Amino acid sequence: MHDKVSLADKFASFDDRWSPKIVGELNGQHVKLAKLHGAFVWHHHDEEDELFLVHRGRLRMEFRDRVVELSPGEFLIVPRGVEHRPVADEEVELMLFEPAGTLNTGNLRNERTVEQLERL
Amino acid sequence: MHDKVSLADKFASFDDRWSPKIVGELNGQHVKLAKLHGAFVWHHHDEEDELFLVHRGRLRMEFRDRVVELSPGEFLIVPRGVEHRPVADEEVELMLFEPAGTLNTGNLRNERTVEQLERL
């Protein structure tokens, strides 16, 4: 039986950025928490839609043709195949929903790729 | 392309209780918002795990052998097959994450069942 998860407690338990942590699993999907600061790489996911929900701070999701700014309590779903780049001018805390096995850098493998995600 | 969703705006747009609204879809899963007040029926889901994240208020999730109390910013995953009963002594606002097609009453069909979910 799973126990409840406090987002605040989980976010307080790590400091490293750009390294999503798994905090829940259901129906083949993962719930992840991440802290971001700065700009990520442009990428897309061939097979996975991704949900980004802001917990604290602000996230700017850049697309090739527009930008979406997210504040706490706002979420955005990025459909598979759509190129995007998350940017945070100040640190942002995010909750992610996506299929288990989703690679943070999507179609790329580079120095920003995290192959093995920590579980909190 | 999906637009961003404000949880506060969506919750402000409806008043009816026990009637989950679909606010997002990804990877065959639905993101739903619901307002509850009072006690629901005991039920389980044969094939679906369910995530309950409290946005406002408090939720008491009763199991046959224990109770879990959830405050804002806390979530709980109820695995498939596990009997549960959501109870809210005062109104609670919830975000749900579960497979598309999940019936709110799980293995039961009764007067609490909502067959067609509204999309906000």
Fraction of residues in helix of chain A: under 10%
Q: Beta-strand level of the residues of chain A, as a percent range?
A: over 45%
Q: What would you call the quaternary organization?
A: homodimer
Shape of chain A: globular
C-alpha Rg of chain A (nearest Å) = 13 Å
Give the class of chain A from helix and strand content and strand pairing: mainly beta
Q: List the total number of helices of chain A.
A: 1
- SSE arrangement of chain A, N to C: EHEEEEEEE
Quick check: average pLDDT of chain A?
Answer: 95
Contiguous low-pLDDT stretches of chain A (5 residues minimum) are: none
Largest sheet of chain A: 7 strands, antiparallel
Which chains have the largest interface?
A: A-B, 34 and 34 residues
- Please report the total strand number of chain A as a whole number: 8
Give the CA-CA distance, first to last residue of chain A: 16 Å
